Amino acid sequence: MRSIDIHAHLMPHCMLDTLYRGDSWHGVTGHRNADGQLVYGLGELTQPLTPAFGWDTEQRLADMNSLGVDVHVVSTFVGYYTFPTVDDAVAACREANEEVAGMMRQHPDRFSGFCTLPMQDINAAVAELERGVRDLGLKGAMIGDHVNCVTYDDPSFMPLWKAAEALGAAVFIHQVGDTVVTPRSDRYHLPNSIGNLADRAITFASFVFGGVMDACPGLKVVLAHGGGYTCFGIGRMDRGWQVRREARVNIQQPPSAYLDKFYYDCLTHSEPALRYLIDTVGADRIVFGTDWPADMAIDWPVSWVLRQESLTTEEKEAILWKNAERLLGI
User: Fold this and answer.
1) Closest CA to 94 of 117, 121, 62
2) In this structure, how many other beta carbons lie within 10 angstroms of the beta carbon of residue 312?
3) Which of 52, 136, 187, 277 has the fewest Cβ atoms surrounding its Cβ within 10 A?
């Protein structure tokens, strides 16, 4: 059975090679931590450059083969950071996107890709999305849940949503840096294991309550990690819409009416949660996503989907490849 993984990351070599030489890459610098790992960052956002994120294409292909994954829709982390200048951000995103496009040209049957965008400047982000989709053949963009804590109901982002809608480009939403949980507790990996999911529910609510999905009915938004707590909390969102005037400022329907306007990856780490997601939004809205090669990824993702006894064969096929094929035109 075919599989298309839309949640597969890359630390681009255009960045890695520069940092390992000890140079700055468009304002990004690296240093060795106490364990001897090379760590990169902008401001307080830092991350160790572990070998997994630096594997070359052949190693990635070998890993895909071992996992039974046919296609990676590759996405980089570059656009998550606020660069010193807009010019730095644009240059970094262009280099990263061209690297992904190069992988696609070299292995067209194994790789597709998402743009990374200079989100600190929306006009520049629109221009890079248009270039990435039209000139490089990328399928959309992966962006964070917010830009410097500004959520996507802010009117300043509307040109990007309109551009993505016009292009037929998917917008894949993933966490960026600290999550909403971090200020209260950065222990026990809670900013990721809980905060990640909370951030995704905030993003869903921002698109819906902010009227973005009504203004852009053709916009294709994909929520990573099963949409986080969105589906579990939708009843309370509906209740808020029913009883609070401020919740109805921009929308005439309850939030639950918008659930099937989004796509969600299958990364729930729980069969009951995946079954609930399918039953809530429909099997045609779930795509295969693994979070490769992060430690929070599904260990054997294709096998994990195939062994879920509560899913029909048709549901498994839809999740593993059919929905992504239709969504992205792969």
Assistant:
1) 117
2) 11
3) 187
41 band by pLDDT with thresholds 50, 70 and 90:
low
Q: Which residue has the higher pLDDT, 35 or 133?
A: 133
Reduce the secondary structure of 78-141 to three states and give it as a string: HHHCCCCCHHHHHHHHHHHHHHHHHHHHHCCCCEEECECCCCCCHHHHHHHHHHHHHCCCCCEE
DSSP class per residue in 155-186: GGGHHHHHHHHHHT-EEEE---SS-TTTTT--
Category of 117 on φ-ψ map: left (φ > 0), alpha (ψ -120 to 50) or beta? beta
> Of 305, 328, 327, 330, which Cα lies nearest the Cα of 317?
305
Sheet (strand 4-10) strand order: 4-10, 71-76, 111-113
Q: For the beta carbon of residue 211, count every other beta carbon within 10 angstroms.
A: 16
Range 179-183 contact pairs with CB under 8 angstroms and sequence separation of 24 or more: 179/145
pLDDT at 21: 84
- Beta strands at 38-42 and 45-48: parallel, antiparallel or unpaired: antiparallel
pTM equals: 0.95
**For the chain, how many residues are written?**
330
Burial 92-131 (b: 16+ CB within 10 A, else e): bbbbbbebbbebbeeeeebbbbbbbbbbbbbebbbebbbb
